[in-house]
Amino acid sequence: MTTTYAEPAPTRSPARRYLRQLGIDTQYVLLGFPIGLITLVVGITGFAVGISTAIIWIGLPVLVGTLMLARGFAMAERARIGPVIGVKSTHPIYRSKRGEGFLRRTLGPLSDGQTWLDLVHAIFRFIPSTIGFCFVVVWWALALGGLSYPLWDWSLPHPPDNYELHELLGFQDTMANRMLLNFAIGVFFAGTLSWVVRGVALMEAWFARGLLVSVYELRRQVTEAEQARDVAQLQKAAAVSAEAVALRKLERDIHDGPQQRLVRLAMDLGRAEQQFADDPERARAIVAEALTQTRETLDELRALSRGIAPPILVDRGLQAALTALAGRCTIPVDLDAPAMERLDPGVESTAYFVVAEALTNVAKHSHASEVQVSVQRIATGLIVTVADDGVGGASLAKGHGLSGLDDRVRAAGGVLAVDSPQDGGTRLTAALPL
Predict the structure, then answer these.
(1) Residue 74 DSSP symbol
(2) pLDDT above 70 covers what percent of the chain?
């Protein structure tokens, strides 16, 4: 086996990260201003013309075209804001009218809420774009101009009757004072350049994200929460059903096994009590038979207790429990269950009962000559497979023997699948999440 080591990604120095982010924010704001002018003109003009002429139907195509243009600008803006805020933006899923008539497909954008939000952004993005553009241009101009002022002061006219800034502040009119003041201004604006540019870029980006992404993400979160609630309700119902099936099976097993033996044991002891005086030998034989019945009853009760909570599973883990289970099966079992760390008790219990129930069904109904049991640990869960070469015909439908097992697996959040063609053997696979 060859092991490949990935080379670590090169780390950027703080200065490079600072300059890179400053460049991203600057180009975002500077490009946003002309784009905002274009979208403002297109959005207001198209909306006004479309609304005013909608009564004669000409305005509807104009309005749809304006909305589609706004959607295109919105898609480009979602791609632009990602590097600024450091989060990859989600592209909303617009409503589609596929399969419907041409007119309904054409007018579909009119009924899509996100498309209208795209138009609102196209019209009103000019406000933060203009504010940000003014700040960025002023800060860059004063920072670059102030820092480079000593290089080009000589080229500027300085008439004696014209008061400059350093004179208004009370300094003498000398070249040194003039250069020092302008250089200090450049240092101040250069020092605050990153904060100002970053602030106005985030203002514009979060304004765009609020209209173009946030509403869709909120709807998606609500949908995911509803789906999680539905899954939880299904798991709860499956758990209740599996518990009811297990209780009915336990009640039936106790009624058909230990309860009948205990009734017979009571009757035998009653007969023995009556015959102790007249026929002691016969009474001792009855007591000996009653002791045998008692041992068999205890064995059945132990078997039932293993079905409820097998001690070996709790004490030694899944591999040991499955090994013991395979050893008790009346059909040869090929077990592939490598040693693994202890898992969640619910997962181990479910995996054990999947194998136990499957082996019980194989022994009773399949007429198989061999069973293969496999337990594999993967990154996200546990895969349990039980395959036999019997007659097949197993089903997960209600009323069949595996329906209760399906409920138990779904209650644990897993999935149970059965492939059982007639005369083709049966393969039962359970996927249990960890």
Answers:
(1) H
(2) 80
Output DSSP code: residue 412: T
* Gap between the Cα atoms of 433 and 103, Å rounded: 47
For strands 426-433 and 371-377, give the pairing: unpaired
Using a cut of 0.70, tell me whether the model's pTM lies above it: no
For the record, the structure tokens of 355 come out as 């194998």
H or E element, residue 427: strand 426-433
How far apart CA 108 and CA 94 sit, in angstroms, is: 10
Handedness of CA 356, 361, 364, 366 (dihedral sign): negative
Contact 430, 378 (CB under 8 A): no
Render pLDDT for 267-283 as a digit per residue (tens, 0 to 9): 777 777 777 777 777 77
Do strands 371-377 and 333-336 pair parallel, antiparallel, or not at all (unpaired)?
parallel
Backbone angles phi, psi at 254, to 5 degrees: -65, -40
- Asked whether 382 and 343 are in contact (CB, 8 A), the reply is yes
Pure H helices in 215-310: 215-256, 258-275, 280-308
Average per-residue pLDDT in the chain? Answer: 79
User: Which positions ≥6 away from 18 have C-beta within 8 Å?
Assistant: 194
CA 165/CA 177 separation, integer angstroms: 10
